[in-house]
């Protein structure tokens, strides 16, 4: 144990200083709750974060998928966990900033019930269509959607993919048959065989199907094109002002001791600054955005206000 602590101190990754009678954190395995099913972007990033923290601290970090209700089930479980640093949450726009505006009672407060640790990464969403439609860009999809009512899907009701799809529909002035799914795998299970005409997912989950030719990329949701695939247009090139960006970060239950938050932040920020982490995230279409707990809290507050206004203005309601 002393040898491991000395090594971590040399690397600049501090463990939480123990209070009298307490062990240093982490002294046993840590669970990271991912409030969505396996196979999606939150799951990918949750598992990467777990691996990085395990490498940094020498302790086991285990991902626990607890999906349902747009992330509310897993987020509620994490919020109610013992605030000792051994249960953490992989948060997203839906769980921390959007669900409060859509659900009468999500079961938790995305701001008040959590202590932010650090943002991890951000990435655009990608709108893709089935090849049978014969469309290859935003203009083509909009024109076809005005001729007939198309079924479209997204991966998380109330999440960034939901807002990406609904804002696209509203700004384009089109209607459609909205189908929501509990994650990437079930949505792609209908989009790939053409049971829905078009769909939205986080870029890492859907990009392999674009590259294989199974789906057609219509546009990314970021303000400009993504550097990893500059051939894919931004939706904003056709619909000016359009922008939705997905972000993901690690949080702990409120009242988690500050030394634990600081130690976890230091370990995660250090790992995210490595070239290996940057390369791995780039492969997924993501950009690392580590920072302080205070910066993460400010980001959540800003997103909460932004999406609350958009949801009210667009009249988005849960079905």
TrEMBL record:
Parts of the chain that traverse the membrane: none
Which Pfam family is an annotated match for this chain, by its short name?
TctC
Q: Does the keyword Flavoprotein apply?
A: no
The region annotated as signal peptide is 1-21
Coiled-coil stretches are: none
Key words of the record? Signal
Its family remark reads: Belongs to the UPF0065 (bug) family.
In its UniProt entry, what is this protein called? Tripartite tricarboxylate transporter substrate binding protein
Instruction: State the organism named in the record.
Output: Dankookia rubra
